[in-house]
């Protein structure tokens, strides 16, 4: 999935694979293999070079984005905090189900 993110940010910046590779000092074939998920374990040093060229943080390449377009900032922050604290999706779903049950009891 890192490769998909590299491609997404590369195309958003209007860069070709060749341009990204040249600016990052990385082989064009490596970037191509990364974007096609043939290469799936890039080093952090390589990701730092790519992120620097794309003017983004390495985190954006490593971590999946949280869909926030339909969330206000407070909800987005709460979701990010829950994710960062180690709450699993299953635990969060269980909490929601419990909360629904509790509200029905009142």
UniProtKB/TrEMBL annotation:
<dbReference type="InterPro" id="IPR001387">
    <property type="entry name" value="Cro/C1-type_HTH"/>
</dbReference>
<dbReference type="Pfam" id="PF08671">
    <property type="entry name" value="SinI"/>
</dbReference>
<dbReference type="Pfam" id="PF01381">
    <property type="entry name" value="HTH_3"/>
</dbReference>
<dbReference type="InterPro" id="IPR050807">
    <property type="entry name" value="TransReg_Diox_bact_type"/>
</dbReference>
<dbReference type="InterPro" id="IPR010981">
    <property type="entry name" value="SinR/SinI_dimer_dom"/>
</dbReference>
<feature type="domain" description="Sin">
    <location>
        <begin position="62"/>
        <end position="100"/>
    </location>
</feature>
<dbReference type="InterPro" id="IPR036281">
    <property type="entry name" value="SinR/SinI_dimer_dom_sf"/>
</dbReference>
<protein>
    <submittedName>
        <fullName>Helix-turn-helix domain-containing protein</fullName>
    </submittedName>
</protein>
<keyword id="KW-0238">DNA-binding</keyword>
<feature type="domain" description="HTH cro/C1-type">
    <location>
        <begin position="6"/>
        <end position="61"/>
    </location>
</feature>
<dbReference type="InterPro" id="IPR010982">
    <property type="entry name" value="Lambda_DNA-bd_dom_sf"/>
</dbReference>
């Amino acid at each position: 999935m890192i490769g998909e993110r590299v491609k997404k940010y590369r195309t958003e910046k209007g860069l070709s694979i060749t341009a990204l590779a040249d600016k990052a000092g990385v082989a064009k074939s490596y970037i191509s293999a990364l974007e096609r998920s043939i290469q799936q374990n890039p080093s952090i040093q390589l990701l730092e070079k790519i992120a620097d060229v794309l003017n983004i943080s390495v985190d954006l390449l490593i971590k999946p984005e949280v869909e926030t377009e339909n969330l206000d900032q407070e909800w987005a922050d709460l979701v990010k905090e829950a994710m960062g604290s180690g709450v699993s999706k299953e635990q969060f779903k269980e909490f929601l189900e419990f909360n629904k049950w509790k509200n029905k009891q009142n």
